[in-house]
Structures are given as structure tokens and as C-alpha cells.
Amino acid sequence: MPLSMIRHGVVRIININAGRGLRERLIKMGLVEGDVVEVIVNLFPGPVILRRNGMRLGLGAGMASKIIVQPLEVKR
């Protein structure tokens, strides 16, 4: 499921369907396959705000649509 479809919650990045440029940009932001991130806000079709290791990251809808994720259940 594309990251752009997740409204909020914790997800694992499964695949990044992007060209070399965007893939490198995401790696520089610290987003790689296998990472677990929390979707804080998704203003589809606008920006997606993520939390990873206490840091907030903002992605455009186009970037978020190229990141394939798997929703995870959070144990409470």
C-alpha cells in the first residue's frame, strides 16, 4: 500500500518505487526499506508528516505515493 494512503499510524517501509534521484534523496533523509515510521499527519493530496527516531519529516504526496508500506499494529 502506498504511504500516501495511510492517514495515521505506524508502518514499515517495504519498497521504494522511485528513480535513483528520489531514492538517494530519501536515503539522505534517513528513509530506507525496512524502516519503521509513524504517520502523524496525511493531508492527502498534500504533504505527509512522518516521525522517525523522534524527528519529524515532511514528504510531498508524489514522494509518498512511491513509498510502499505495510501497516503495523502497535502493542499497548
Describe this structure as you would to a colleague.
The chain has one domain: Ferrous iron transport protein A (FeoA) (SH3 type barrels). It is 18% helix and 41% strand. It has helices at 20-28, 61-65, and strands at residues 9-16, 36-42, 48-52, 55-59, 67-72. β3 (48-52) and β4 form a beta hairpin. The chain is globular, with a radius of gyration of 11 Å. The mean pLDDT is 92.
CATH architecture field: Roll
**Main sheet strand line-up:** 4-3-2-1-5
Rg to the nearest angstrom?
Answer: 11 Å
**What percent of residues are in strands?**
35-45%
Helical content (DSSP H or I, runs of 4+): 10-25%
What's the name of the CATH homologous superfamily? Ferrous iron transport protein A (FeoA)
What CATH first level would be assigned? Mainly Beta
Mean pLDDT over all positions? 92
Backbone shape:
globular
Q: Which H/E pattern describes the elements? A: EHEEEHE
User: What is the distance, rounded to the nearest whole angstrom, between the alpha carbons of the first and last residues?
Assistant: 24 Å
Number of folding domains? 1
Q: Assign the structural class, choosing from mainly alpha, mainly beta, alpha/beta, alpha+beta, or little secondary structure.
A: alpha+beta
Largest sheet: 5 strands, antiparallel
Oligomer class: single chain
Uncertain runs are none
Total strand count, please? 5
CATH fold title: SH3 type barrels
